[in-house]
């Protein structure tokens, strides 16, 4: 494990080096791990059967979804219980656009992202003014509201039957019928979304969000207006959740009201905590695990999937109090946070 | 005389029946090194909060460089150039020393909304410069949670300076510092350019008299006296309020006008 792990000695002369040295060494490992993961992900359809490919696709979608929630929970310190609302709005938007207008993959997915961001911006104005438990309750209420709307507006959403008959994704007019092609499309969009989220998180804007999470009063005295930043983070997170929802609609080609509801939100929050909030990659991993347990192992357990999930969660809380990301932290305790 | 940079007139703040700051009128000219002293509970920290805007005044007006800022919220006042260190360290504990200073510095360089980390080079350079000034350069990559108390005080000063303030409010910056650390702090503050006006609350009178060109003494929320350090040292009323009667000798560290009074 520790082939090259000299103690991180801070050189007194070169101030830049003290921050750069541990970073650079970790970065090399991160890049190698990332490339291996990318290579594996890229060849999944060649070696895995269509059902398995579909499962991995869903894992990817939920990974992006969890990363968008992490922007709120981990970076800004705003735990939301209604994040599935934006996911659902994105999914319904993508589905409706595909049915009524165009099934072009990029169009549906972008429409979903815009819808998610706009819906989040419309309600965030109110939600972000609160914090802590009140924010939790407000987002829960918003989520349930969207869930109820999805159920009651049956002429538009198909009601409790769900929105079905969504045509398969098209790229440049050609429908993607093979699970492998759909997978590659999902992979490409998820990677772009993850890259965008990473850029946001590691930008000065992301720094401000972390500052608000750690000490909002101090940020105010430094001249920042926390409300604006929290509001922007809320809308951005909503947009990326919508993007994930759009991918989901194109992937499974049916959208149910439950996809916008509390269960999905709670499951996602679990994924974020499981993976380690604030790291982006941790929650992505957490979401992948949650989907795997729920969809793959769940059905073979006579409907006791949630029970297994609960056990995994309890075990994780005891063994890994800071999530999967905490494991990496054990190895490089000196760099408290690496946004990759 | 030029217009005062900070002008308080009739500023009061009460908490229920208690009036913590009572009708304080005070002008601080640009470039001043002004000290606020007074016994515990005199209302010094509360007065600072009224100036920064983290607390609303009950009465009176606060003006910065001639503009009335009484109704402005805290972030807007900060953007007009008020910066502060707090009595109890208020930092971003989960983040590194450098990141703390950067949060304050990046607002000055138009890099705040840039998505490209490289654009932050100017803010980073400034942050490092400040860390060197306060003596924390070697600790740039350390999480704040791992710093000693004295180091956190130093970091507070670096963060406050990174805002490039016009008005710097220091609330007991030397509290808990070793003599060497506080000597370094005094040197750093003495080296600040005239464009920065400093108002300092400090119990360590060595620090106060080393820095201040004028002193205001607060007692029970009221201004007891404003004057030069020598005048303040000489004042019997100040000695009584600050130290109680019979302990005036603590003020007398050698020759000075105070001697005249005793003799």
Task: Offer a few descriptive terms.
heterodimer, A: 340 residues, mainly alpha, two-stranded antiparallel sheet, globular, disordered N terminus, disordered C terminus, B: 263 residues, alpha/beta, Rossmann fold, 2 domains, 6-stranded mixed β-sheet, 4-stranded antiparallel β-sheet, 10 helices, 35% helix, 23% strand, ABC_transp_permease (chain A), membrane (chain A), transmembrane helix (chain A), transmembrane (chain A)
Brief overview:
With 340 residues, chain A is mainly alpha-helical. Chain A has helices spanning 15-42, 44-47, 50-76, 84-100, 105-127, 132-152, 154-157, 179-202, 204-214, 216-221, 226-252, 262-275, 281-297, 305-319, 323-331; strands at residues 170-171, 174-175. Chain B has 263 residues and is α/β, with parallel strands linked by helices.
How much of the residues of chain A is beta strand, in percent?
under 5%
Average pLDDT across residues of chain B?
Answer: 82
Largest interface: A-B, 34 and 46 residues
CATH topology call of the largest domain in chain B: Rossmann fold
Per DSSP, the total helix count of chain B is 10
Largest sheet of chain A: 2 strands, antiparallel
Helix-strand pattern of chain A: HHHHHHHEEHHHHHHHH
Total number of strands of chain B: 10
| Proper CATH architecture of the largest domain in chain B | 3-Layer(aba) Sandwich
User: Using only CA atoms, what is the Rg of chain A?
Assistant: 20 Å
Count up the domains of chain B: 2
| Structural classification of chain A | mainly alpha
Report the count of strand segments of chain A.
2
Organism (chain B): Geodermatophilus sabuli
Pfam families (chain B): ABC_tran, BCA_ABC_TP_C
InterPro entries (chain B): AAA+_ATPase (IPR003593), ABC_AA/LPS_Transport (IPR051120), ABC_transporter-like_ATP-bd (IPR003439), BCA_ABC_TP_C (IPR032823), P-loop_NTPase (IPR027417)
GO molecular function (chain B): ATP binding; ATP hydrolysis activity; L-isoleucine transmembrane transporter activity; L-phenylalanine transmembrane transporter activity; L-valine transmembrane transporter activity
């Amino acid at each position: 494990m520790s082939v090259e792990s000299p103690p991180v000695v801070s050189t007194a002369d070169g101030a830049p080096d003290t921050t750069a040295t541990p970073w650079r060494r970790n970065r090399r490992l991160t890049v190698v791990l990332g490339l291996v993961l990318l290579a594996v992900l890229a060849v999944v359809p060649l070696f895995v059967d269509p059902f398995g490919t579909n499962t991995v696709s869903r894992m990817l979608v939920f990974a992006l979804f969890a990363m968008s929630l992490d922007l709120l929970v981990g970076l800004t310190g705003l735990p939301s219980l209604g994040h599935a609302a934006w996911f659902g709005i994105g999914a319904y938007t993508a589905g409706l656009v595909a049915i009524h207008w165009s099934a072009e993959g990029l169009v549906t997915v972008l429409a979903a992202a815009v819808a998610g961001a706009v819906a989040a911006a419309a309600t965030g104005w109110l939600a972000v003014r609160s914090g802590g438990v009140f924010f939790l309750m407000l987002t829960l209420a918003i989520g349930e509201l969207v869930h109820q709307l999805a159920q009651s507006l049956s002429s538009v959403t198909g009601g409790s039957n769900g929105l079905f008959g969504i045509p398969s994704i098209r790229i440049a007019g050609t429908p993607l019928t093979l699970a492998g092609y759909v997978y590659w499309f999902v992979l490409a969009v998820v990677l772009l979304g993850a890259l965008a989220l990473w850029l946001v998180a590691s930008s000065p804007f992301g720094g401000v969000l972390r500052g608000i999470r750690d000490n909002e009063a101090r940020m105010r005295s430094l001249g920042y207006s926390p409300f604006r930043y929290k509001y922007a983070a809320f809308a951005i997170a909503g947009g990326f959740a919508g993007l994930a929802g759009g991918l989901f609609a194109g992937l499974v080609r049916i959208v149910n009201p439950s996809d916008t509801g509390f269960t999905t939100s709670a499951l996602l929050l679990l994924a974020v905590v499981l993976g380690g909030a604030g790291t982006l990659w941790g929650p992505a991993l957490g979401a992948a695990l949650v989907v795997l347990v729920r969809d793959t192992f769940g059905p073979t357990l006579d409907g006791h999937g949630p029970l297994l999930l609960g056990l995994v969660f309890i075990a994780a809380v005891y063994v890994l109090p800071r999530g999967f990301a905490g494991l990496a932290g054990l190895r490089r305790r000196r760099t408290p946070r690496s946004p990759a | 005389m030029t217009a005062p940079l900070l002008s308080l007139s009739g500023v009061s703040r009460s908490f229920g029946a208690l009036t913590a700051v009572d009708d304080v009128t005070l002008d601080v000219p640009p470039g001043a090194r002004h000290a606020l002293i007074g016994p515990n509970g005199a209302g010094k920290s509360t007065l600072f909060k009224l100036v920064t805007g983290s607390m609303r005044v009950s009465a009176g007006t606060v003006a910065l460089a001639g503009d009335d800022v009484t109704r402005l919220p805290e972030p807007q006042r900060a953007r007009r150039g008020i910066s502060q260190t707090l009595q109890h360290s208020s930092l971003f504990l989960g983040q590194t020393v450098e990141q703390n200073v950067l949060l304050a510095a990046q607002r000055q360089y138009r890099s705040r909304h840039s998505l490209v980390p490289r654009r932050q080079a100017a803010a980073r350079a400034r942050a490092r410069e400040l860390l060197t000034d306060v003596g924390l350069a070697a600790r740039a990559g350390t999480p704040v949670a791992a710093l000693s108390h004295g180091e956190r005080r130093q970091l507070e000063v670096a963060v406050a300076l990174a805002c490039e303030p016009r008005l710097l409010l220091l609330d007991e910056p030397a509290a808990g510092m070793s003599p060497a650390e506080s000597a370094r702090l005094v040197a750093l503050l003495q080296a600040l350019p005239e464009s920065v006006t400093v108002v300092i609350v400090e119990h360590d009178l060595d620090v106060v008299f080393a820095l201040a060109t004028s002193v205001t003494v607060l007692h029970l929320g009221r201004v007891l006296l404003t004057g030069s350090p020598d005048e303040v040292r000489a004042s019997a009323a100040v000695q009584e309020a600050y130290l109680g009667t019979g302990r005036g000798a603590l003020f007398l560290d050698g020759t000075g006008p105070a001697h005249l009074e005793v003799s």
